[in-house]
Specification:
Strand order of the largest sheet: 1-2-3
Distance between the termini: 25 Å
Strand content: 25-35%
Structural class: alpha+beta
Radius of gyration: 13 Å
Largest sheet: 3 strands, mixed
Length: 82
């Protein structure tokens, strides 16, 4: 993976759930890659800490210094871009 952002999104029952947004380096995204990423995370994290959904983007937004603080919000939420 070239880059990954992980954050909480609203969930009607639990309040929040974990979502991952992935910028693949070479592998084209698809169900097989999604299953592999989720399985990998679940072997290393508690169930409530692992992402429940994965979206793919061609590029994640970043500051000039590539600061991780630019990824504190959902990078796919267009309300915060601009």
């Amino acid at each position: 993976m070239a880059d990954v952002a992980v954050f909480g999104i609203p969930h009607p029952e639990w309040g929040e759930e974990i979502k991952a947004v992935v910028q693949p380096r070479r592998v084209p995204p698809g169900d097989e890659l999604t299953d592999e990423l989720l399985a990998y995370a679940r072997t290393r994290l508690a169930r409530f800490q692992a992402a429940g959904t994965v979206d793919y983007v061609t590029e994640l937004p970043a500051t000039e210094r590539q600061s991780s603080t630019s990824r504190l919000r959902d990078p796919t939420d267009r309300r915060h871009q601009g």
